[in-house]
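Lab meeting, item 3. Inverse folding demo.
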C-alpha cells in the first residue's frame, strides 16, 4: 500500500513523465543503432493507445509487480513473511526506483525481466530443463532491452552448474538455458539484419570517455597529432562523462587539423586499449565498487547523482551549453562577452 501511494504521488507530481537525455533514443530514434530496439518497440505499442503518462503508469505497475514476485519467491523458499517483506521493501519504497519508473528509460523493464528470469530459476529447489529454457528466453529478452543483458546467461549457467545433481543434469540444464538465451539473441539479430542490413544487438556504444580517463599519457605511444587530445591528470579528474561530452574536454577543444578529429580520437582509443588494458580494467573496477557504497557522495569525477533524483523544478539550459557547431561560441562565453560589452 505504501509503495502504491508513493507511485500515485510521483505520477501526479511529474506529469506526464520524466525525460532523460537518452530518452530521445527511444522516442525518436536518435543515435540509431546505439541501443537495442526492445524498449523502442514497447513504447511504440503503448503510445499507440496512450501517452507518456500511460508509459509511466505501466512502469509503476511493473515496479509493484517486481516487488510482489520478490516477495513470493522468498516466501516460497521458506523464509518468514517479515523477511520476504523486507526483501521487497527496497523496490517498493526507494526514491531512486520511483524516479526510474517515472522516467522514459528502459531500466525498469530490464530490471523486471532479470527478476522474472531469476524467479523461474529459484521457484523450485530443483530446476527442470523446461524451467531453464524459460529462464533463458526471459534473460535473453532482457538483452534486447539493454545491451548489457548480453552477460546474463553467465550467472545463470554458473547457478545451474552449482546446483549439482549429477553432471548430466548439470550440463543439460545449463546447455538448455544457454541455447534458449542464444536463440533469442540470434533471432533479434536476424530481424535487425533484415531491417537494417546489420547483424547486431546494438553498435556505436562509445568507450571514449572511459578510455580517455584511464590513459597514462606520459607513457602512451601516440601519433604526434593525436597527443594533443590525450587529457592531463587534472582533466581526467573530471571523469569519463565530462571527457566524452563536455565542450571544454581536450577531445573536442584541442586544436587539430580540420576533418581529422574523429580519426585522432579513434587512434587514442586504440592506443589505450592495446597498450594499457589493465588501466582500463582498473578504472571500470573502481566505478563498479562505487555501486555498493553505503552513501552516494558527490565527487568531481562522478556523474551528478541529481540525474537520478526527483527535482523541485525543470532546469533549462541556453543553446550550446557544452558542445557547439564550429564558429558558434558556447553559452557561457557568449554571456561573458555580453557582460563585458555592457
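The presenter then showed the designed sequence:
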Amino acid at each position: 500500500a505504501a509503495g502504491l501511494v508513493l507511485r500515485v504521488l510521483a505520477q501526479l507530481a511529474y506529469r506526464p513523465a520524466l525525460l532523460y537525455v537518452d530518452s530521445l533514443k527511444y522516442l525518436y530514434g536518435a543515435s540509431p543503432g546505439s541501443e537495442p530496439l526492445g524498449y523502442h518497440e514497447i513504447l511504440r505499442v503503448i503510445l499507440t493507445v496512450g501517452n507518456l503518462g500511460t508509459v509511466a503508469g505501466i512502469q509503476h505497475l511493473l515496479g509493484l509487480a517486481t516487488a510482489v514476485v520478490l516477495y513470493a519467491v522468498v516466501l516460497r523458499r521458506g523464509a518468514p513473511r517479515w523477511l520476504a517483506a523486507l526483501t521487497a521493501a527496497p523496490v517498493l519504497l526507494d526514491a531512486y526506483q520511483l524516479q526510474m519508473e517515472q522516467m522514459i528509460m528502459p531500466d525498469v523493464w530490464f530490471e523486471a525481466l532479470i527478476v522474472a528470469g531469476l524467479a523461474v530459476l529459484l521457484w523450485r529447489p530443483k530446476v527442470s530443463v523446461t524451467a531453464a529454457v524459460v529462464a533463458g528466453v526471459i534473460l535473453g529478452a532482457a538483452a534486447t532491452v539493454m545491451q548489457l543483458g548480453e552477460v546474463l546467461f553467465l550467472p545463470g549457467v554458473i547457478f545451474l552448474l552449482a546446483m549439482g545433481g549429477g553432471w548430466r543434469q548439470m550440463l543439460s540444464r545449463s546447455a538448455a538455458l544457454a541455447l534458449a538465451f542464444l536463440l533469442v539473441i540470434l533471432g533479434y539479430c536476424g530481424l535487425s539484419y533484415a531491417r537494417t542490413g546489420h547483424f547486431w544487438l546494438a553498435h556505436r556504444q562509445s568507450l571514449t570517455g572511459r578510455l580517455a580517463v584511464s590513459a597514462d599519457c606520459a607513457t602512451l605511444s601516440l601519433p604526434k597529432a593525436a597527443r594533443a587530445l590525450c587529457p592531463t591528470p587534472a582533466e581526467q579528474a573530471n571523469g569519463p562523462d565530462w571527457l566524452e561530452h563536455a565542450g571544454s574536454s581536450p577531445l573536442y577543444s584541442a586544436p587539430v587539423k580540420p576533418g581529422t578529429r574523429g580519426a585522432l580520437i579513434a587512434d587514442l582509443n586504440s592506443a589505450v586499449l592495446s597498450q594499457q588494458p589493465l588501466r582500463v580494467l582498473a578504472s571500470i573496477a573502481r566505478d563498479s565498487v562505487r555501486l555498493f557504497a553505503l552513501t552516494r557522495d558527490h565527487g568531481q569525477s562522478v556523474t551528478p547523482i541529481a540525474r537520478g533524483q526527483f527535482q523541485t523544478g525543470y532546469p533549462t539550459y541556453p543553446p550550446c551549453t557544452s558542445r557547439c557547431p564550429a564558429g558558434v561560441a558556447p553559452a557561457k562565453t557568449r554571456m561573458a562577452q555580453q557582460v563585458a560589452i555592457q
